[in-house]
Write a structure and sequence with these properties.
heterodimer; A: mainly alpha; B: 45% helix
Chain lengths: 317, 55
């Protein structure tokens, strides 16, 4: 029994794929198109990126923070020593602070991840970096020998005194019993100003360090870095998710993510992040399953915008 | 706020923002959104390229 060739087969047959082309033909120069494509597109890419590329802002480092806002740096260092900073109370993956993580009912992915990157802010951000100095400050021994209660009292008293001082200036703090705290925070400020603290915090023991987590956490605990972000409209409550610095267009496709953070109940919820992600997951599922959802899948038939766009085609049908 | 930007080693470009009450929008994003809306309106008004010859 002879089997007829399939409609798309190259074998001879009377089907449409086997017939010779009888329509119009024209010359086509692949090299010409390739050359024009590479040169024209290349020039466009280079030219447009020179004009419109995203701005290359200088990175904020612990050194630049210490130089620009030393009082804020000292106040933050005191809060790291006392365990009262944002990082110290963040919960997983850095520590096990109770009720600190975001959850959706009983579902708590932050708790599920566990404390994978344990950070003791006093040890990791202040004490250990100071130990790397050629001549560590003698105040380290006083701090280490004190009880936890005494350490907490020193740092609480010093933080309160800093907050009350004019401009938070450590030099204008009234005298009091702050133990070794002013000496430790002062030494850390000196270390940061000299540019040594960035290296000490990022020392992962590897030849090339790509882990900036400790630095970013320390920066985020102060007021200087978050205020810079707020001034550049980059915080969540200012649609920061979709903004760039300067006038460069940002990630405008993230507008729906950003919008949810501006409206209730997301806006004031302590679980805003997980609520927004859950909402976007549900909306994404709706989009993915659109062909199977009665009513929603009929919307194009009821609102025929496509008929306006392809009006020529529909006029001739 | 702008004082803080000046304090940064080299200033971060603040950008131009337009605001109506709670809503603020960066000029670059506004241009992109207006361009997208304009393209959509053009798609509705202009004939589809090549559409006339396809019978």
């Amino acid at each position: 029994m002879n089997k007829s060739p399939s409609p798309m087969s190259w074998r001879k047959g009377d089907n449409i794929a086997g017939r010779p082309w009888r329509g119009r033909v024209r010359d086509y120069d692949l090299f010409k198109e390739l050359t024009i494509g590479v040169i024209v597109v290349g020039l466009l890419v280079v030219g447009l990126s020179a004009i419109f590329s995203s701005p290359d802002e200088p990175g904020v480092t612990l050194k630049s923070w210490a130089a620009a806002a030393p009082s804020d740096f000292v106040a933050t260092a005191a809060s790291e020593l006392g365990g009262t900073s944002g990082t110290a109370g963040y919960g997983p993956p850095y520590n096990s602070t109770a009720d600190a993580s975001q959850h959706l009912g009983f579902f708590n992915p932050q708790e599920l991840s566990g404390v994978r990157l344990p950070i003791d802010t006093a040890q990791d951000f202040v004490i250990n970096p100071l130990k790397t100095l050629p001549t560590p400050p003698p105040a380290l021994a006083t701090w280490t020998a004190a009880t936890a209660a005494q350490q907490a009292k020193w740092t609480a008293d010093y933080s309160a005194a800093l907050a009350a001082a004019p401009d938070g200036d450590p030099a204008r703090v009234p005298s009091g019993n702050y133990g070794p705290v002013p000496a430790l925070t002062g030494a850390l400020l000196g270390m940061a100003t000299a540019g040594n603290l960035d290296g000490a915090l990022q020392n992962s023991g590897q030849p090339y360090n790509l882990d900036y987590t400790p630095t970013i956490l320390f920066l985020g605990d102060g007021n200087y870095f978050p205020n810079l972000a707020a001034a550049a409209h980059l915080t969540g409550d200012k649609w920061g998710v979709m903004n760039e610095t300067g006038n460069t267009p940002g990630q405008s496709w993230l507008w729906l993510f950003s919008l949810l953070y501006q409206v209730e109940p997301y806006k004031s919820s302590p679980n805003a992040d997980i609520l927004v992600v859950a909402t976007m997951l549900v909306l994404s599922l709706l989009l993915l399953l659109l062909p199977f959802i009665p009513g929603l899948r009929s919307l194009p038939r009821k609102i025929p915008v496509h008929r306006v766009i392809w009006k020529d085609y529909y006029a001739n049908r | 706020m702008h004082e803080l930007l000046r304090q940064a080693g080299r200033a971060i470009t603040p950008g131009t923002y337009f605001g109506w009450g709670e809503v603020t929008i960066q000029s670059g994003n506004l241009v992109i959104i207006i361009a997208m809306l304009a393209l959509f309106v053009l798609a509705l008004l202009l004939p589809f390229p090549g559409g006339r010859s396809r019978k």
